[in-house]
């Protein structure tokens, strides 16, 4: 293959235009960079998944011609389509006419039904993922590659998986199994967008809207469409999977019929917007055939580390959320803490930004929901950590969609969101409570993707500064007692000390021989402690950067330190 240009770049992959020399055809090559390219377990699974995808043969599914791995890259060679996507068509036209939408839906529905019958769920339908060929036919891009991308994400980011909140069905938010009806929900959301130029749910409270609210009236935005069309879309976006159309083809056919003004048989929307509750049973669905691999030791350590954090945090949060309950509350696990286990990876031909609001892998490394009994306060997103401001008035909740700031005196008041679409791994308040430092797993902010730390103004939510210098994933950040410095620990085996005011790198503390997880300042701010996968705790002089002492004796990795 001879690369001739770049088609697009996303968070984990780059898509190139290339020429296949032996048969002289133009192709698209998606290159995914990952340290797992030399992991035999991952490569074996990658090959299984790629083979499954390559075997999908449908006129409206993008073809996969070839796949492989080399050095720290894995790649897939795909059919090249140059007609743009439904997203570009929307940008050009604002909205689409109903007849065109019906034609696209018939093609997409047929492709989805074909894939669903073979155990493959798309999981991330959106206009960007529907390509158009030269004859203006809809082509579902990278169908099934979503699971491969999801494997990279889960194995490198401690169980995190990917999805797009704007299109996600309620069962995905609650951490349920996904099936064909999950794709139907996303297809209905996308149809609403194609018809109106706007998605039904927007803003900072997407989860609340998808779980509990009716979509805005379609006919207020498109009064030229008959009421029957709106009824079909409402059934497609029913909160409960069993109340939706049971296949994508059924939805597409009902939409076509509704354009005549006739309400299709079985379209009764009187109960379709009843909320799906977090305690209802798991849906039974189709899943792509792929055995779960055993995680290697490092990945197990990540799971254990995050599990340990969450076990502590869940207790803290439950105590916090139940603080007004007299006596010792009896907390039922089913109503107080719900752990999520979900696969929601992303699939794109030209890479697009796909936020990651949910989690994956069957472990207890995240708390997906904490409910205040008697008040119904729900922190719906997966929670990584909870930190009070120094004055105790504000509660910072680091989650997989950003940093939620709650009024600690009134948790029922809607919180503010900092850093929307960030997967926050660590957060630290400045001693005066005016600022926050965070690290995350999203390339839009601090953390593993770009090896940075980000500073925020807690009052305005403004991003103030990005601290750059680490060459590996940043796992922790801690503010010095005097508020003048920050310390961060990284997978590059270093601890770095920063000037909080200017962002200047003051010290790089070298000595650990493996990942650095926690960092902790001494109360007087003169010393710093760090723990590492190398089994040591190291004490540093914070002013000079000199190693004062290495505490040995652990036979495993050190995942927490405290003065």
UniProtKB/TrEMBL annotation:
Residues 1-256 form the Protein kinase domain. ATP binds at residue 30. Keywords: ATP-binding, Kinase, Membrane, Nucleotide-binding, Repeat, Serine/threonine-protein kinase, Transferase, Transmembrane, Transmembrane helix, WD repeat. It catalyses: L-threonyl-[protein] + ATP = O-phospho-L-threonyl-[protein] + ADP + H(+); L-seryl-[protein] + ATP = O-phospho-L-seryl-[protein] + ADP + H(+). WD repeats lie at residues 444-466, 467-508, 509-550. It comes from the Bacteria. Its EC number is 2.7.11.1. The chain crosses the membrane at residues 301-322. This is non-specific serine/threonine protein kinase. SUPFAM superfamilies: Protein kinase-like (PK-like), WD40 repeat-like. The lineage of its organism: Bacteria, Bacillati, Chloroflexota, Candidatus Thermofontia, Candidatus Thermofonsia Clade 1. It is an enzyme of class 2 (transferase). Pfam families: Pkinase, WD40. GO terms for molecular function: ATP binding; protein serine/threonine kinase activity.
């Amino acid at each position: 293959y001879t690369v001739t240009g770049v088609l697009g770049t996303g968070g984990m992959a780059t898509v190139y235009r290339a020429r296949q020399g032996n048969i002289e055809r133009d192709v698209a090559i998606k290159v995914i960079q990952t340290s797992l390219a030399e992991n035999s377990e991952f490569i074996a699974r990658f090959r299984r998944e790629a083979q499954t995808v390559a075997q999908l043969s449908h006129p409206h599914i993008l073809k996969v011609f070839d796949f492989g791995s080399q050095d720290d890259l894995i790649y897939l060679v795909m059919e090249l389509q140059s007609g743009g996507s439904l997203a570009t068509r929307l940008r050009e036209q604002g909205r689409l006419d109903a007849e065109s939408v019906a034609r696209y839906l018939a093609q997409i529905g047929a492709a989805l039904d074909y894939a669903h019958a073979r155990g493959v769920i798309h999981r991330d339908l959106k206009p960007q993922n529907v390509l158009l060929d030269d004859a203006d036919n809809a082509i579902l891009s990278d169908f099934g590659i979503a699971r491969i991308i999801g494997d990279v994400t889960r194995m490198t980011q401690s169980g995190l998986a990917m999805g797009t909140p704007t299109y996600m069905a309620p069962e995905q938010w609650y951490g349920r199994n996904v099936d064909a009806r999950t794709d139907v929900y996303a297809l209905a959301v996308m149809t609403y967008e194609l018809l109106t130029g706007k998605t039904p749910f927007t803003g900072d409270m997407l989860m609340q809207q998808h779980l509990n609210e009716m979509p805005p009236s379609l006919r207020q935005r498109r009064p030229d469409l008959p009421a029957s069309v709106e009824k079909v879309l409402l059934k497609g976006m029913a909160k409960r999977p069993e109340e939706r159309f049971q296949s994508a083809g059924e939805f597409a056919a009902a939409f076509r019929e509704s354009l005549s003004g006739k309400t299709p048989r079985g379209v009764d929307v009187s109960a379709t917007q009843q909320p799906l509750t977090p305690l209802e049973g798991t849906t039974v669905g189709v899943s792509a055939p792929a055995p779960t691999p055993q995680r290697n030791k490092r990945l197990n350590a990540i799971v254990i580390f995050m599990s340990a954090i969450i076990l502590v945090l869940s207790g803290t949060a439950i105590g916090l959320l139940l603080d007004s309950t007299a006596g010792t509350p009896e907390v039922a696990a089913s109503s107080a803490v719900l752990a999520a286990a979900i696969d929601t990876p992303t699939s794109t031909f030209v890479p697009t930004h796909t936020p990651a609001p949910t989690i994956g892998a069957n472990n207890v490394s995240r708390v997906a929901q904490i409910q205040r009994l008697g008040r119904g306060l729900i922190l719906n997103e997966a929670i990584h950590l909870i930190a009070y401001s120094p004055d105790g008035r504000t509660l910072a909740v680091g989650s997989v969609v950003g940093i939620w700031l709650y009024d600690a005196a009134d948790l029922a008041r809607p919180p503010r969101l900092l850093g929307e679409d960030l997967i926050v791994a660590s957060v630290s308040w400045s001693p005066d409570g005016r600022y926050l430092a965070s690290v995350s797993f999203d390339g839009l902010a601090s953390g593993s993707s770009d090896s940075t730390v980000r500073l925020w103004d807690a009052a305005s939510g403004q991003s103030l500064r990005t601290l750059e210098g680490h060459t590996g994933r940043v796992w922790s950040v801690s503010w010095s007692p005097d508020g003048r410095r920050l310390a961060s620990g990284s997978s590059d085996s270093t601890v770095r000390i920063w000037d909080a005011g200017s962002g200047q790198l003051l010290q790089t503390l070298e000595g650990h021989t493996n990942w650095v997880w926690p960092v902790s300042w001494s109360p007087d701010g003169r010393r710093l402690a760090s723990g590492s996968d190398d089994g040591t705790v190291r004490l540093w002089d914070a002013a000079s950067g000199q190693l004062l002492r290495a505490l040995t004796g652990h036979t495993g990795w050190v995942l927490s330190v405290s003065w």
